[in-house]
Amino acid sequence: MFKTTLDQWFVFKTIVEENGFSAAAEALNRSQSTISYSMSKLQSQLNVQLINIEGKRCELTPAGRNLLQSVYPLLEDFEYLEKTAHFLANGVEARILLSIDNIFPKDILFEAIRLFSEKFPLTEVHIDEHLRFLPSDDNAFDLAITISEDGLVPGTKLIEVNLIPVAHKDHPMFQEGHDTYSFEQLASHKMIFYQKSFQSEMENAPTIPGKIWSVRSVDSAISALKANLCYGWLPEHAITDYLESGLFRRIKITELPKCEIPLYLVEKSRKAKGPATSYLAEMLKQCCERHNRP
Fold it and tell me: Contact 260/244 with Cβ under 8 angstroms?
């Protein structure tokens, strides 16, 4: 059994913060005798002098100062625990599992989470990233941002991610003197291919064996281009800074097909959805809507 209680430590903290027993009693809406008794019992149980009283002033002893610093995080944790219990009692989820396709713009994602956290600060959002995430993939999630599957629309359309062909500014193809390239000409150069990331027309483009390098994320593809190893079709939003700085150059292709990947918001279970999950879904929709405006 513990010798002391959280309430005693809370009273001690309040006495120090209010600089006296009388002010602490007023702040806690208790009698001054109750405050004095709680403080006296705490010191007695610890067998340590925590404060010295000089007239109406209270001063921390070295031991009191040390213990007060140690008890602050404990009281904050307990306050957090009670707030969490209050949220849970009112049906607010403690955790939301959000599965997203790797190409979803991260600035939009974290802006939505920032807005969500202002209203639900105690709900954790666990983000699970996948490459070309499909609604039928065997993953547990509360919300998911996915591509379509077999031409079916799995949920609310959020955004279309535009893929463009780019390479390092010093890539050999820019020394060949071509203004534009055909797919057949590009086939002689190594291409980075983040698995399952293209639409069928991209996957069926002419290639030469040994000229395809496969990675599992957009970040890895960008790193490969920065090393001037290959060219690739990358999400435009992910490489804007590299294009503006001149490190990457856009490749001009004859009869360039439109390569946009629509992403959708999928809700695993509408019936079991709590208020936090519903609000996060709404924030994702609103942030994408603002991004899509011309």
Answer: no
What is the pTM for the complete model shown? 0.67
Specify which residues 264 forms β-bridges with: 146, 157
Tokens describing residue 116: 């969500």
Ordered by where they begin, the domains of the chain are 6-89 (1.10.10.10), 95-156+263-292 (3.40.190.10), 161-260 (3.40.190.290)
Measure the CA–CA gap between 62 and 12, rounded to whole angstroms. 14
User: How many Cα atoms occupy the beta-carbon half-sphere of 3 within 13 Å?
Assistant: 8
Contacts for 5 with CB less than 8 Å, ≥ 6 apart = none
Token output for 179: 């203004």
Coil vs helix vs strand at 73 = helix
Instruction: Name which of 77-86, 98-107, 192-201 the model is least confident about.
Output: 192-201
What's the whole-number mean pLDDT along residues 228-253? 92
Handedness of CA 106, 111, 116, 122 (dihedral sign): positive
